[in-house]
Specification:
The chain is an alpha+beta fold. 41% of the residues lie in helices and 18% in strands.
């Protein structure tokens, strides 16, 4: 992993992003102290099996009270507000 000062990030953003795109991990420093890491994003699958998708969605459902809140707001509009 390479350390790069924030000044270099500001001045050479594109070249640093090209290096990250090629697979390099870069640590950004401020006054010699590590503050951030630039690294390529983790590969995400383009396709997901329906069973896995269902499990994912069921683990991340909205609060059950949200339905009641949305129903109470459904008759409100912003039509009367000036553009």
């Amino acid at each position: 992993m390479t350390d790069v000062a924030s000044r270099e990030l500001r001045n050479n953003t594109r070249s640093l992003l090209d290096r990250v795109s090629a697979g390099e991990h870069i640590t950004i420093t401020v006054d010699g102290r590590a503050v951030a890491e630039l690294k390529p994003p983790a590969d995400r699958p383009v396709w997901m099996a329906s069973s896995r998708f269902s499990q994912f969605v069921l683990r991340h459902q909205a609060d059950s009270a949200l339905t009641a809140d949305l129903a109470s707001l459904s008759n409100e509009t912003t039509d009367d507000l000036p553009l």
